[in-house]
Amino acid sequence: MIKDFEYFGPKTLNEALVLLDKYRDDYKIIAGGQSLIILLRQGLLQPENVIDIYGIKELDYIKSDGKKGLKIGALTTHREIEYSDLMKGSFKVLSEMEHLLSTPQTRNRGTIGGNISHGDPAGDPAPVLMALGANVKLASVAGERILDMEKFSVDYFETAMEHGEMLVEIELPAPPPHTGAAYTKFNIIASDMATVSVASCVTLAADDTCTDVRIALGAAAPRPMRAKAAEAILKGKKITDALLKKAGQAASEEAEPVSDISASEEYRRELVKVLTARVTKEAMSRAKAG
Amino acid sequence: MLKELKLTINGQPYELSIHPRTLLVEVLREQLGLTGTKRGCNEGACGACTVVMNGKSVKSCSVLALSANGAEITTVEGLAKGAELHPLQKAFLDYGAYQCGFCTAGMLMSCKGLLNMFPNPTSDQIRDGIDGNICRCTGYNSIIRAVEAVSRGDYKETK
């Protein structure tokens, strides 16, 4: 049974931030609760205070600004992103990723902000957001700060959020022309977490030279990570199958996977190698088509 | 400390006092005796506890009851209208879409959530729609046929 706690259900961001400040020594924030409730039930977390932010309607939105890109409120559900008309062009990968995330019931209830704040290295959104160059906005009573998604993920189930802070928004920059993004994950059962996942975002010049590429790995290290050695192999070049193979090899070497019940370290490295090449090739063909 | 909770379940309003740690499935089964909703894996994997909350399917083992405050909830008990079964229930009977029946309440509620979203789902959408529900008697194909029959209009809902 879950250990009892004090429950707070703020309805505005401001009320929530005041509560976070007041109880900063011992609280957990709950959004959709699709990850947190499991940890509470297992007794892995026993907070004195639970601050339920799910009722803060002002953080449930997807806004598109052609020039600036996309802004997603932290309490937007996976399901809303999966079926949003704004997920087009290279943002379509967000909808595809959400479709692969867990089950319909979990996507109906769970939020994108809750998912990345949970800090599970096998979560689906984080690698995709990193590949798309996302920033996250954190708020506290002291004000707001904006962090690169890459700096938000710190370690195993650990983010850069300080006590008293909460995630309020995800910002995605508008991609340059001829940009394509793709995501893939390997798992045994379709609704499971990733054994390994890879997201890739490629920008091509008019002559098909790769002007920019971002590759991000999930479940391949204690935190979602950029595969920068792999990116360096592709950037500034015309991407060929031979180069993709080299990039896959580099990603597999820079990954820091662990062995666990789902896969051994060696097997995960092999998955990183194959999936990096495969998904980057798909991103490249999308960049050509777009 | 007990907290007040207001819910509407199958059209009927309820006011309860609960411990904050209480899960929605516990309120339904233990406090209200609505035992049609099953508690299976208890960790959001099996789907047996699925209910429809504000029109969408959710797993009631993975929702704090207090965060459902003010919500409209439909459980399997709320599908039939009096003695008249819901079209999904009729189709499940006709197509043999269950064997032991443990997953059935959750399956029905996932299918209800699916039809709320897509009144005429494709076969792929039906498969996706029950992706979060496990049937260990292997009745998936008959469940898909039952939902297709409802979507075709073979079973009219009584007004």
Which terms would index this structure?
heterodimer, A: 290 residues, Uridine Diphospho-n-acetylenolpyruvylglucosamine Reductase, domain 2, Uridine Diphospho-n-acetylenolpyruvylglucosamine Reductase, domain 3, 5-stranded antiparallel β-sheet, 4-stranded antiparallel β-sheet, 25% strand, B: 159 residues, Ubiquitin-like (UB roll), DNA polymerase, domain 1, 2 domains, 31% helix
Blueprint of the fold:
The complex is a heterodimer of chains A (290) and B (159).
Chain A: E1 6-8, H1 13-22, E2 27-30, H2 36-41, E3 49-52, E4 62-65, E5 69-73, H3 78-82, H4 92-100, H5 104-109, H6 112-118, H7 125-131, E6 135-140, E7 143-148, H8 149-152, E8 153-155, E9 158-159, E10 166-172, E11 179-186, E12 196-204, E13 210-218, E14 225-226, H9 228-234, H10 241-254, H11 265-289
Parallel strand pairs in A: 1-3, 2-3
Antiparallel strand pairs in A: 4-5, 5-10, 6-7, 6-10, 8-9, 11-12, 12-13, 13-14
Helix pairs in contact in A: 9-10, 10-11
Chain B: E1 3-9, E2 12-18, H1 24-31, E3 50-53, E4 56-59, E5 72-74, H2 87-94, H3 104-117, H4 123-129, H5 140-152
Task: Explain what this protein looks like in three dimensions.
The complex is a heterodimer of chains A (290) and B (159). Chain A is α+β, with helices and mostly antiparallel strands. Chain A has three domains: 6-52, 2-Layer Sandwich (Uridine Diphospho-n-acetylenolpyruvylglucosamine Reductase, domain 2), CATH 3.30.43.10; 57-172, Uridine Diphospho-n-acetylenolpyruvylglucosamine Reductase, domain 3 (2-Layer Sandwich), CATH 3.30.465; 179-289, 2-Layer Sandwich (Enolase-like, domain 1), CATH 3.30.390. In chain A, 34% of the residues lie in helices and 25% in strands. Chain A contains eleven helices and 14 strands. A five-stranded antiparallel β-sheet of chain A has the order 4-5-10-6-7. In chain A, strands 11-12-13-14 form a four-stranded antiparallel β-sheet, sandwiched between helices. Chain A starts with 5 loop residues before the first strand and ends with a helix. The mean pLDDT of chain A is 96. Chain B folds into two domains: 3-78, Ubiquitin-like (UB roll), CATH 3.10.20.30; 87-152, DNA polymerase, domain 1. Helix content of chain B is 31%, strand content 16%. Chain B has helices at 24-31, 87-94, 104-117, 123-129, 140-152; strands at residues 3-9, 12-18, 50-53, 56-59, 72-74. A five-stranded mixed β-sheet of chain B has the order 2-1-5-3-4, with helices on one face. The longest helix of chain B has 14 residues, at 104-117. Classes of the chains: A alpha+beta (290), B alpha+beta (159). Chain A binds chain B through residues 1-7, 9, 30, 33-34, 37-38, 40-41, 50, 52, 54-55, 79, 99, 102-106, 108-109, 190-191, and chain B through 1, 3, 19-21, 23, 42-44, 47, 50, 53, 56-59, 61-64, 66-67, 69, 110, 113-114, 128-129, 131-133.
